[in-house]
Amino acid sequence: MSESPEAVADGPTRVFVEHRELMFAIVYNILGTVADTEDVLQESWLSWTGRAHRSPVEDIRNPRAYLVRVAVNHALTRRAAITRRRETYVGPWLPEPLLDEPADDDSADDRVLRSESVSLAMLIVLESLTPLERAVFVLNEVFGYPHTEIAQVIDRTPAAVRRLAHRAREHVHARRPRFRAHPRVRRQATERFVEAALGGDIAALMEILAPDVTVWTDGGGKARPSGLRPVRGRDKAARLLAGYAGRRRSGLDVRYRRVNGDDSAVVFDGASPYAVMVMDLTQDGERVSDVYIVTNPDKLAHVRRDEEAGADAFTGAAGRGRA
């Protein structure tokens, strides 16, 4: 939603804009796609302006809580449509990557809010929760909402919210123990992996990949090459990645960017995004346990080749060389 300065000066619009990035961050973590999040924010905007036309916005004691409730409930409704799409999706489905973007001083706080997204690997775990469990987990664990406030957002009792939170937390921690590699370790591992993968170096890949590594490639049936199912095991994964390197297109450029808060590789074909590669590490931080490669052009439509971001990107063994 793009507003003119005159429109932003309007009371309801100004209030909505003030809380837009918070709503974006919460809804994205519930849905896992940027496009659906933007649609939900548009629906929330229409609900908000409809409410403003019926009575003054000033009558709402807590506009932030009101807007979050509207956005979350629109997101829960949207989850049903996403589930139906997943049923006919071609190949593995991965969340839509969210790239951290450089911010000027005026939008720094907003960018901090947007960057509160959880990692791509965590978003995959959250897909196994029920919609209500996921909403409660996101609001409580990611954004720190107490159970009493969440109860008002999703129209449940605090006791019911506590039960949902307990189930969600147990499920998530069972599938993904609390571990997060140091950023420097992630950078080094990412550089080593990209250099080996794009160079087709099977020996180097065998060294950095964990024995039970899994490679997920999400092309949505619209990008080649992309597998129809995840590839598990170091030998198969190394051969798959080396095969990709042998068939790679000339002129691909690798930029290192932060994706969902993690250092990752973004591949461009000219000015167009070609792939986003995100690695998950073993608990000792020494090897790659999962590789997520998103090549579906629909999920990369919002990825921009930003020279400023490229200048801020980390560099290392792989540098910013040609793929």
Write a brief caption for the model.
With 323 residues, this protein is of the alpha+beta class. 52% of the residues lie in helices and 14% in strands.
What does this structure look like?
With 323 residues, this protein is of the alpha+beta class. Helix content is 52%, strand content 14%. It contains 13 helices and 6 strands. Strands 2-1-6-5-4-3 form a 6-stranded mixed β-sheet. The longest helix is centred in the first third of the chain and has 25 residues, at 63-87. The chain starts with a helix and ends in an 11-residue tail after the last helix.
Overview features:
13 helices, single chain, 14% strand, globular, alpha+beta, disordered C terminus, 6-stranded mixed beta sheet, 323 residues, disordered N terminus
